Amino acid sequence: MSEFEHNGHIHRIRDVARDDGTDMNRVADLHIELLGFGPMAGLGRRFIREACYINNMRDDQLKVAVYDIDGATVGFVAYTDKSISFHRTSLKKHWVRTTVTLIRSFLEDPRRIVALARALAVLASRRTEHGVVGNDPMGEVVCVAVQPEYLKKEYRLPSGPRPGESLIAFAAQRLEKLGVDEMRMLVDADNKAVLFLYRALGARFEKYEQAGEPMVQVWFDLPLPNQGLEIPWT
Predict the structure, then answer these.
(1) The domain 2-221 belongs to what CATH superfamily?
(2) What is the predicted pLDDT for the residue at 229?
């Protein structure tokens, strides 16, 4: 962990440990707040925190880092070098924990059962990727999100990147050190602003369908090209 000062603000990216309750609560809160449209978010904050993050972090399959500005966590990135297998492996190893968490989520709000069908369809779609999309090790940025107010120009670093772009670069650097030579992201096909940004950062696109929903598979070759994504503190 290190930090960088710019324009009167202290920027920091740091790794999150699964047993750090404060950080894991903040990541879950940010996920619900910023990525609440996703298939898993419909199952509630508890499910996001326990089943989607902590279970996958137990076996070091998923890694999470947060972006702090002036001591406040404003964004996060979750990434893996096991893009093809980590969903399936997590369910197999932690099915008891996942089932208990799911039941508790339903008890909190029975209406969440409606979201279960969508979540299961997504998981089933991911199971078909083995040998088709590729094989592990393969990098994936599973989630990345930053609060909108911290995407303003005053928070842009001297080398160019905003917090969200810095988080992507951070994940790419870590994945490269794990021996991964390509990294992907799955983006909603109608999220034009994000797709334009990733194109500017050197990504290539492929059409993708996830549980019947049109998506774009965004690919980055590692190491990332020098597109103003340098992180000053690394």
Answers:
(1) Gcn5-related N-acetyltransferase (GNAT) (3.40.630.30)
(2) 55
